[in-house]
Amino acid sequence: MIHLTIDGVSVQAEEGMTILEAAKAANIRIPTLCYLKEVSNIGSCRVCVVEVDEMEKLTASCNTLVRDGMSVRTKTDKVVRSRRMALDLILSHHNLVCFSCPSNGVCELQEVCHECGITESSYQSVRSPGIEVPAVEDNPFLGYRPDLCIHCQRCINTCANVSGCNAIKLTSRGIFRTIETPFGKNWKQTECESCGNCAEACPTGAIYKKEAKTYRSWEIQRVRTTCPHCAVGCQYDLLVKNNKLVGAQGVDGPSNGGRLCVKGRFGSYKFVMSDDRLTDPLIKDRATGKFRKASWDEALDLVASKFMALKRQYGADSLAGFACSRSTNEDIYMVQKMVRTCFGTNNTDNCARVCHSASVEGLAKTLGSGAMTNPIYDITHDVEAILLIGSNPEEAHPVVGMQIREAVRKGAKLIVVDPRDIGLTRQADIHLKLRPGTNIAFANGMCHIFIKEGLIDEKFIAERTEGFQALKKIVKDYTPERVAKICNIDPDDLRAAARIYATAKTAPIIYCLGVTEHSTGTEGVMSMSNMAMMVGKLGRKGCGVNPLRGQNNVQGACDMGASPTQYPGYQPVTNPEIRAKFEKAWGVPLPSEVGLHATDVFPAAIRGEIKGLYICGEDPVVTDPDTHHVIKALSALDFLVVQELFMTETALLADVVLPGRSYAEKDGTFTNTERRVQRVRKAVTLPGNSRLDTDILCDLMRRMGYNQPNLSAAEIFNEMASLTPSFYGISYERLENEPTKSLQWPCTDKYHSGTSIMHTGKFTRGLGLFYPTVYTPAQELPDKEYPLMLTTGRILYHYNTRAMTGKTEGLMEIAGHSFIEINTKDAEHLGIRQGERITVSSRRGSITSEARISDKTNPGECWMPFHFPDGDCNWLTNAALDQFARIPEYKVCACRIEKLPEEQAYDKKGKYVTQKMIADQWHKKMNKSVQKMMRR
Ligand code: FES
């Protein structure tokens, strides 16, 4: 510790602290402007100057380190004079238009000037008083007013160090320097992601969120909640004015550290107040296909009587109910409880089935628990290397992407394993651009190299694992050369990747849907565990196997028992003791057989075995593979009920539609990808006849003959926790009192502090299991008729079906329609131009989309986002299922691309050819290389 005095007070500080930090810890205020904690301490504004004995000149406290015996004075005449002078100079550049400035009331310059007694500049202003300089406002969300800028560079450092974009620059120097923001006409060509973290960092109103013009700081209430998009679980305040949501402001949550992405900041509240929201229960007349408004009594009576009639006629297992991974834990718990107690079946599931069910199965089999092993902060800070596989976090989990960029900036090595050039490949040390569907070959190749080069952790393997010898035998054949051929990568790159990962002291595996959404997805996940266990990188800091779960509460949906095989907390429905516990608590006999997975419910409906289906908040017509097949299944049902916010494609097929409420209209909890339970809080009450989703479910349960009183969110959580050992210690009271306002399960009693890193000392299953994974190709490979390989994914500006993000005009303005990325060579062969409309077909359907030509994908491969109805790739994708998790193979299917028919076309020599002739010629050529690849 270092001893110093500040204003005569004896202060202790840690070595490496600045004077400003030491003063703050001792409750001594020093005003600042350009300083931003952990982000920017360039010392340019000189507002924080202090006097230090033995230092001739005043020094900036924000970047001067404490020294033993130092004597600091923060309020001497010299200091105050200098501070006032600095502010005087700053104000000479700043346009004092406080009345019209959206930052009025929260402006730090205003606050510091007030504190120092400055009201205007004594210098001749470089600005014409009161004349506003035109703002730069071409970005849909953000604007910049040069006349309010004080050149503190907090925005530059935030963009570079917090968001990791480097999109804001300083041009010129001295009095002529200007900040160049990427909000002008060509902003789309810049690195700007419109995250708005710069606007939050701006101490004045120079960089601002356009929406901030609609409110004043003193008019709004703040409601702390959790973002409803991806599973990072960012914490922010919803800003409420007169019972209307007007914005969102990031706060220092454990997984986001104050950051937000464009979806969280700008796409998380407009959909709540959208005019498209359903407001009344709707009943369809099957004869006309038209919906009519109904009262809640009529609608719920109809739903209850129809389901009970089907149960009587066809048996309990003719019914099924899906919960929603976007809704709260409490909603999900009640859906599965309704299905089990009222329908009397285990036919319940959630959309993890089609995204990360392979992680749940694969990690449970190998490690004993199907969840991310380490927290986000841990795997993105102070790590030596990151092995990123089948994951594009900059777009799908942007706040994790920002933290990975930060890790790389600070020196972490990055290995990207992905069939496509994602943004992070630009920063990667190695990019293994492998062929889609070959992850297991890649992982086995890595294990081969670990063994061959003596990189394995023998002690860890001997003491903590089983099954090593069986895997060793298998990976013997996966030489780098053979793997390179299967994966279409360089064998030396594979060797280099294996060495980096194995020799780094800390190196997490981070993966996503590129690993799970395959017909061998579960084995793909188990091969991730194999790699980590072989080099002893589990159960400790900065390591682990870390699936980035997709939707905001998909972790919670699995935790809450929306599963055909498990009650809440992954307790098997087939275990008689556990079943007896739930029967006692719920007061009814429960089915002993496992139910159908969601992906098996659709074929069962087509076969006539499933007659009635309750879908709470999911839209499988858009999200599930092979849309024809899903529509056929839903149309075959005797009765379909959808509980929703909007009239989705699935809701259109329903017999009854029940209007629920969004995350901003209710209390509850979400569980993020790192097993962290966080609160969701009610911010607004909207007009209309929608009801709380849990009230709808409880009312319905009573009408089906089960005595379920309406319960508050906290009461439902308590009921769930009392039946779920890994949640025994979590309650709303504890969440409120925890410093991070969150707890990570397992949290087994009320004194347990939650589990940050899993499998320390011992795996949940005892010994970690090496699973003998063998590479098998994807189920549908390109052939003569469909010569291209199609893979799918997310983009930054939308989330899944776009039901929420599509209601924000700015997001639609940036990314509003479907496209397909085609390799330059393929486009050339097909005669397809940039931006041209084309047809994409697979064995299951045909869509049109816009061609985006680049080398992001390899020749013979193409990629589509799955958000857009004007070319929804799920008409094409393959519903081939994984044998363990029943997850579909979204990531690989064969397709064919053709130009849209034209009257005539000419080849390069001017010879008349039809578009079909060009396409056939190219398909023939492609087919040869595909055949060659398949022979390997
Ligand atoms: Fe220290 Fe600006 S806050 S120099």
TrEMBL record:
PANTHER family: FORMATE DEHYDROGENASE H, RESPIRATORY NITRATE REDUCTASE. CDD domains: fer2, MopB_CT_Formate-Dh_H, MopB_Formate-Dh-H. One of its GO terms (biological process) is formate metabolic process. Pfam families: Fer2_4, Fer4_Nqo3, Molybdop_Fe4S4, Molybdopterin, Molydop_binding, NADH-G_4Fe-4S_3. One of its GO terms (molecular function) is NADH dehydrogenase activity. Residues 78-117 form the 4Fe-4S His(Cys)3-ligated-type domain. Keywords: 2Fe-2S, 4Fe-4S, Iron, Iron-sulfur, Membrane, Metal-binding, Molybdenum, NAD, Oxidoreductase, Repeat, Translocase. Residues 1-78 form the 2Fe-2S ferredoxin-type domain. GO terms for cellular component: membrane; oxidoreductase complex. Residues 220-275 form the 4Fe-4S Mo/W bis-MGD-type domain. In the C-terminal section; belongs to the prokaryotic molybdopterin-containing oxidoreductase family. This is NADH-quinone oxidoreductase subunit G. It comes from the Bacteria. Composed of 13 different subunits. Subunits NuoCD, E, F, and G constitute the peripheral sector of the complex.
